[in-house]
Amino acid sequence: MNTSDSSSAPSTSDAPDSASADLATDTSHPFLDKPGKKIQGLFDEIAPRYDLLNRILSFNIDIWWRYKAVQSLRLKPGHKVLDACCGTGDLSMAAIKAEPEVEVIGSDFSMQMLLNGDRKRRNKSGSARGPRLVQADTLRLPFKDNTFDGAMVGFGMRNVSDLPAGLRELSRVLKPGGRLMILEFTPMTNRLLRPFSDWYQGTILPALGNLLSGSRVKAYSYLDESVKDWPDGDRFAEIIRMTPFHAVRWKPLFPGNVAVHEAVKG
Ligand SMILES: C[S@@+](CC[C@H](N)C(=O)[O-])C[C@H]1O[C@@H](n2cnc3c(N)ncnc32)[C@H](O)[C@@H]1O
User: Which residue CA neighbors atom 13 of ligand 1 most closely?
Assistant: First the structure.
């Protein structure tokens, strides 16, 4: 694992502690303005149970979301692909499964997420091919201009403090004509399911997520609030169009609370 950006080493445990104090008094989650070090600390804290909670809280659908999402990249043998905010690497693995001859580099600023992902793959099969992992902030990627044929972000863009700057950084490292794919939550598109979805996301998901993860910073309350704060599909597509991308399209994935956005670097 390459830890090229030593300045963005995983945060120490004092970040969660100071956040717990904030949580006692504030009504909205104190991380909603996405302070980099605290977001990094939040993911370091929940890393050991991140995958398990994804499976439980999404009723296992998250595996299918990633499978569908990587198809937007139109991967070909020999392609070099960046998985930014890769976490434990499930999107990277979906890409490798879709096209075994791609080279995937996963980057994330949470060392604990990277280490848990690496351990998971080694336990499954010592010889399983995986992404090359790099500890890096998506706002300052340690790659040269025009490096990648494709770039993808799964449930990560919502956590980046400066969204347009993050999109520009992804565009910088993509080759001209390279494809971008962003998988992210979106306001429920199925009107019939909306009341259930709002109730589940606002009540069950934070309560169960905070309990099972043992998160002192209430990571799953942050998840709920950051999703509510996130633009809808059309608005996010507009934001992408304001950066060096064109051919921007998006579609919801079943049951309608997740969307795949795709774009091409001009
Ligand atoms: C919800 S997890 C998603 C992980 C993975 N992509 C997946 O599909 O499960 C979000 C990840 O984004 C990372 N992240 C958030 N902001 C980041 C930033 N500015 N730079 C690098 N990683 C970031 C977090 O550390 C975390 O691992």
Answer: 85
